[in-house]
Design a protein that fits this description.
Elements: E1 2-6, H1 11-22, E2 26-31, E3 48-52, H2 58-66, E4 70-73, H3 80-85, H4 87-107, E5 111-117, H5 145-165, E6 168-174, E7 177-178, H6 189-198, E8 203-206, E9 212-214, E10 216-217, H7 218-229, E11 238-241, E12 246-248, H8 249-260, E13 266-269, H9 271-274, E14 284-285, H10 290-296, H11 304-315
Parallel strand pairs: 1-2, 1-4, 2-3, 4-5, 5-6, 6-11, 7-10, 8-13, 9-14
Antiparallel strand pairs: 9-12
C-alpha cells in the first residue's frame, strides 16, 4: 500500500512510519520540520520518501495525495507555548492546511484518517469524556482555545465532506500521547519532567498540581490508528485514543523522581507566572475509550510505569 503521511517526521508520525514500513507499505511523508525533525526518521533512510514542505501548498499536497492509497493527516501546529506565541499561524496551519488535505482526498477519492485532539472537549467537567460530549470552551481572549477551535473546525469540515461528498474519513482524538522521540520543548509534561529528573534539576509543577491527566504510549496509539485505518466501519466516525490510568501532575512528578532515583525537588509555579496572557488549564482530561474497544477490540498495553521507564530509556 502507498501511504502518504502529513507531519511524518513528527513524534507520532515517525512512529507510524516505523509501523507501516515494518508491514511492507511504501511511505511518503510531507513535513516542514517546524516541530518534526529529520532525526526522528534517520533510521528509515532509503526506506521512506521525505518531502520538505507546507501542507498549505495546494499543488504539492494534491500531487502527493493523488499517488497515495491512504492518507494519514498528522500535521498540525501544536504545543501550548507554540499556540500562545503564534496563534494566527497555528490557526492557519490547523484549519487552512487541513482544508487543502481534506479537499485533495475528496478530489482523488482517497481513504483518510485525520488526527484531532482531546483539546476539542475544552474544559467540559463531565468525565470521562465520550465522543458525543459537548465542547465547553473559554472566551476567545484565552488564546489556548484557538487550538481547540481550529481542530474542531477541521473535524466539522471532515464530517461535512463525509456527508456531502462521501469522503472516506475517520477522525481520531488523541489524549496525551507520550513516548520516545517526544520533546519537552513545547510543554509536553512527561519528557519535560524526565529530562529534569535525570539532570537532578527542579520539576516545575503549575498551580497546585491537582490537575489530572491520562497518558497513552505512542506504540498503543499507533496500533489504534492503524487498526481504525483498516476498519471500514470506522468511516464517518470519531474515536478517542487514550490510556487508562488517571494521575495528578503532582503525583506524576513524584513518581518520575522515584523511578529515576533523582535528587530533584518539586517547585510550584503560578500559571500567571509560567505563561503569557491567554492560558487557561482544565482540572481533568480523562478519555472514554469504549467506542474503539467495542469496534476493534483495541486496548492500551502500556501502564503509566512502563511509559515512564520507556521514556527514561530513550533519554539515557
Amino acid at each position: 500500500m502507498r501511504v502518504f503521511i502529513t507531519g511524518g517526521a513528527g513524534f507520532i508520525g515517525s512512529h507510524l512510519c516505523d509501523a507501516l514500513v515494518a508491514r511492507g507499505d511504501k511511505v511518503t511523508i510531507l513535513d516542514n520540520l517546524s516541530t518534526g525533525a529529520k532525526k526522528n526518521i534517520m533510521h528509515l533512510d532509503n526506506k521512506i520518501n521525505l518531502v520538505q514542505g507546507d501542507i498549505r501548498n495546494k499543488e504539492l499536497v494534491e500531487s502527493m495525495v493523488e499517488k497515495a492509497d491512504l492518507i494519514l493527516h498528522m500535521a498540525a501546529a501544536l504545543g501550548v507555548e507554540n499556540i500562545l506565541n503564534e496563534p494566527i499561524e497555528s490557526i492557519s496551519v490547523n484549519y487552512h492546511g487541513s482544508e487543502i488535505v481534506l479537499n485533495a482526498a475528496v478530489r482523488f477519492d482517497k481513504r483518510i484518517v485525520i488526527a484531532s485532539t482531546s483539546e476539542v472537549y475544552g474544559k467540559n467537567p463531565n468525565q470521562p469524556l465520550k465522543e458525543n460530549f459537548d465542547r465547553v470552551i473559554g472566551p476567545p481572549q484565552k488564546l489556548r482555545w484557538t487550538y481547540s477551535d481550529s481542530k474542531a473546525l477541521e473535524e466539522a469540515m471532515a464530517y461535512a465532506l463525509f456527508i456531502t461528498k462521501k469522503l472516506k474519513v475517520t477522525t481520531i482524538r488523541l489524549f496525551n500521547t507520550v513516548g520516545p522521540r517526544q520533546t519537552g520543548k513545547y510543554g509536553m509534561v512527561i519528557p519535560k519532567f524526565v529530562e529534569a529528573a535525570i539532570a537532578n534539576q527542579p520539576l516545575i509543577v503549575h498551580g497546585d498540581g491537582s490537575q489530572s491527566r491520562v497518558f497513552c504510549h505512542v506504540s498503543d496509539a499507533t496500533r489504534a490508528i492503524l487498526t481504525l485505518t483498516d476498519c471500514a466501519d470506522s468511516i464517518g466516525e470519531v474515536y478517542n485514543i487514550g490510556g487508562l490510568e488517571e494521575v495528578s501532575i503532582l503525583s506524576l512528578a513524584n513518581l518520575i523522581i522515584k523511578i529515576t532515583n533523582s535528587n530533584s525537588k518539586i517547585i510550584f509555579k503560578k500559571y500567571e507566572d509560567a505563561f503569557t496572557h491567554g492560558f487557561e488549564d482544565m482540572e481533568k482530561r480523562i478519555p472514554d475509550i469504549e467506542k474503539i474497544k467495542k469496534l476493534t477490540g483495541w486496548t492500551p498495553k502500556f501502564s503509566l510505569h512502563n511509559i515512564i521507564e520507556d521514556i527514561i530509556k530513550s533519554l539515557t
